[in-house]
Design a protein that fits this description.
Elements: E1 10-19, E2 24-26, H1 27-33, H2 38-45, E3 49-51, H3 59-73, E4 85-89, H4 101-107, E5 114-118, H5 124-137, E6 143-151, H6 161-166, E7 169-179, E8 188-195, E9 203-205, E10 226-228, H7 230-252, E11 261-264, H8 269-279, H9 290-293, H10 300-311, E12 319-326, E13 330-337
The structure holds oxa(dethia)-CoA (UT7).
Length: 344
């Protein structure tokens, strides 16, 4: 099948970058603070460490670093006109209002580029990639910087050991550019997005929005923390990511045998293994990065991509299948052939 296009313009990935805050928290560090063990965390999740931003560091700080590195990887100078838009996927914006992306664009020196946030929790990066690609295909933008950045450590309930051991902070970014060459490696060949709002209570931060307002002295401080029904989310994650991947594979005309690298949302190693099994993609082709960073929500897919590209795992022309799942519920998948791109 032909790549997505209405006017002979395709969106190709031309740069990738990543940034992790320096403070690394090992499983042993967590076991000193709460009732958990390295053995439980490793066997139940595959996670060995995560990075948490120091107090005072916000999502935009991580996003600027990753964005800068992606621009450098694309051999672009961060200056006005370098990109036409900055799309930032995040669940942890610097402030409820305004969006974080305009500040990121300004701090990167990108002038008056369009800039907006996308909120699709752990699927955010795929939603952002899809909207950025759509702008290019429609002819509204020639280059777009797409960033996934999170500081989940700021949302974690210190009394909830389950979420504390899973989530980490970080940022990953890619640059998309218009091209008329449909066969060029990097061209986004197919995308699928989905949602199920009937299950919106499975992953929540209950307070702070218009339904449950943030009032000083509110009776339930826990309502401001991130909460998740892990078991139900686990089952949905495998089913929805597998379904979304199958749709994209059909759209682009690849068999599962032809997938060289499966880059799934890095939530839990058991989820990645179950996804490989369900899809029929051998486990060795699944990119694993969560052992070092945990679940970084919207940053997870671009961080895993940057890590794999940096290690030389992704060869030019390799078939790469991206997929993610998160609160909303939301999910998505996308396919591309890896371009000649390494992180800066
Ligand atoms: O990013 C968006 C998508 N998110 C996900 O995909 C996350 C999906 N869910 C998961 O990855 C898993 O459900 C978790 C990792 C969150 C939890 O693993 P689980 O195997 O489902 O554990 P569980 O919640 O069923 O808990 C099993 C036991 C419980 O003890 P009892 O009741 O059996 O005595 C928990 O209290 O493990 C206990 N437990 C822990 N023990 C040590 C829960 N968290 C911990 C912990 N350390 N950190």
């Amino acid at each position: 099948m032909e790549p997505l296009s209405t006017n002979n313009s395709h969106a190709a990935l031309i740069g990738v970058g990543a940034f992790l805050p320096p403070r690394r928290i090992s499983n042993e560090d967590l076991a000193e603070r709460m009732d958990t063990t390295d053995e439980w965390i490793t066997t139940r999740t595959g996670i060995r460490a995560r990075h948490w931003a120091d107090p005072g560091i916000a999502t935009s700080d991580l996003a600027v670093e990753a964005g800068h590195r992606a621009l450098k990887s694309a051999r672009l100078t961060a200056e006005p006109g370098a990109v036409d838009a900055v799309v930032l996927a995040t669940t942890t914006p610097d402030h409820p209002c305004p969006a974080t992306a305009p500040q990121v664009a300004a701090r990167l020196g990108l002038g008056t580029a369009a800039a907006y946030d996308v909120a699709a929790v752990c699927t955010g990066f795929l939603y952002a990639l899809a909207t950025a690609s759509a702008q290019i295909v429609a002819g509204h933008a020639r280059r777009v910087l797409v960033i996934g950045a999170e500081t989940y450590s700021t949302l974690l309930n210190p009394a909830d050991r389950t979420t504390n051991v899973i989530f980490g902070d970080g940022a990953g970014a890619v640059v998309l550019e218009a091209t008329s060459e449909a066969d060029r490696p990097g061209v986004l060949l197919g995308v699928d997005l989905g949602s199920d709002g009937t299950r919106h209570t499975l992953i929540t931060v209950a307070a702070g929005g218009s339904r449950q307002r943030s009032t000083p002295g509110a009776p339930d401080p826990d309502a401001h923390y991130f909460a998740m029904d892990g078991k139900k989310v686990f089952a949905q994650a495998v089913t929805r990511m597998a379904g979304s991947c199958a749709k994209v594979l059909e759209r682009v005309g690849w068999t599962t045998d032809e997938v060289d690298h499966l880059v799934g949302h890095q939530a839990n190693l058991r989820i990645l293994h179950a996804l490989s099994r369900q899809l029929g993609v051998p486990q060795r082709r699944a990119v694993v990065h969560l052992d070092q960073v945990g679940n970084t929500s919207a940053a997870s897919v671009p961080l895993a991509l940057a890590d794999a590209a940096g290690r030389g795992t992704l060869g030019v022309g390799d078939r790469v299948l991206l997929t993610a799942f998160g609160g909303g519920l939301t999910w998505g998948a996308a396919a591309l052939r890896w371009p000649d791109v390494v992180p800066a």
